[in-house]
Amino acid sequence: RFARYLGETYNNLGAIHYRRKDHQQALWYLSRAAAKRPSSPRVHYNYGLALSLAQKRDRALEELVLATELDPTDVEIRFAMGVVLLRLGRVEEAEKAFHECVRSDPKHERALHNLRLIDELRRRAREGEIQVE
Predict the structure, then answer these.
(1) Is 63:32 a contact under the CB 8 Å cutoff?
(2) Which segments within the chain are labelled E, that is strand?
(3) What is the pLDDT of residues 7-40, one digit of tens each?
(4) Does residue 68 sit in helix, strand or coil?
């Protein structure tokens, strides 16, 4: 029981440091929160966000995938996973994640925005305006 409260405290402190863009402190607290509360999707979501902010995107994706497995209905977790996939250059997977967001929430503006950006990039690549690796 104590571990649960300690894990929640670590999660809250990590979220505060994340908002302050203090990567190291956020990662310190959130890694401990994940160890104390391994079945909490919110902890893994926060840890994934902090890892992404610290440019550790492969690890961030692992945490976000775990969070999604723990709570497949959370649209914000799925959206964050799409953003990380996009930053990793995994456009098709990101697009799928954004479509899943919109399927769950047809008015999810950020997912709709990212889908429009992906469409625009593809159009520009087809027309030879940009090169896509």
Answers:
(1) no
(2) none
(3) 999 999 999 999 999 999 999 999 999 999 999 9
(4) helix
Please enumerate in sequence order all residues whose Cβ is within 8 A of that of 59, keeping only pairs 6 or more positions apart, or say none: 51
* Residue 52: partners with Cβ closer than 8 Å, 6 or more residues away: 60, 80, 83, 84, 87
Q: Angle 77-31-76 (CA atoms, 0-180°, nearest 5)?
A: 10
Would you state the pLDDT for residue 120?
Answer: 94
Q: Hey, is 106 helix, strand or coil?
A: coil
pTM of the model: 0.89
Question: Which two three-digit tokens encode residue 51?
Answer: 């890892």
d(CA 123, CA 4): 49
User: Could you count the other beta carbons within 10 Å of the beta carbon of residue 100?
Assistant: 19
User: What is the per-residue DSSP string for 110-124?
Assistant: HHHHHHHHHHHHHHH
Please provide the distance, in angstroms rounded to a whole number, between the alpha carbons at the two ends of the chain: 50
38-70 confidence digits (pLDDT tens)? 999 999 999 999 999 999 999 999 999 999 999
Q: Residue 92, by phi and psi: left (phi above 0), alpha (psi -120 to 50) or beta? A: alpha
